[in-house]
Specification:
The chain is an alpha+beta fold. The protein has 4 helices and 4 strands, in the order ββαααββα. The structure holds the ligand Nc1nc2c(c(=O)[nH]1)N=C([C@H](O)[C@@H](O)CO)CN2. It holds the Pfam family FolB.
Length: 126
Amino acid sequence: MDIVFIKQLQVDTVIGVYDWEKSIQQRLLLDLALTADQRSAAASDDIGLTLDYAVIAEKVTALITAQPIELIETVAEKVASMLLAEFATSKVEVTVSKPGAVPRAQTVGVHIVRTAPAAQLQQEQH
Ligand SMILES: Nc1nc2c(c(=O)[nH]1)N=C([C@H](O)[C@@H](O)CO)CN2
């Protein structure tokens, strides 16, 4: 199946468990993959028939920066839920990295895969 993706989307926000993290902004990097058949968009050359990655990037950034969050797992789950609810996609993969969180590691993060409920999948096929 086809995938529309965004790699290494930078989002600066208040993120972290500890008190010292609640008064600073830290950078998260997001990799997103949204599964959706792209054949009709390609055949018609119509942005309205695909998943607009610019719109996705804006909505994801707005969602994450709307309020402080403690866990990157929460970020990933919120993003996956929003993408499934607001875009015509059957499956999303969300990777949230927090570079700099562990000094001796290049980066740390979480990767989740979520699928649309069966009812939503049936709607998209018709
Ligand atoms: N699995 C996780 N482990 C940790 C998280 C997290 O969000 N998920 N967060 C922290 C702290 O906020 C850390 O990033 C501060 O440097 C620790 N472990």
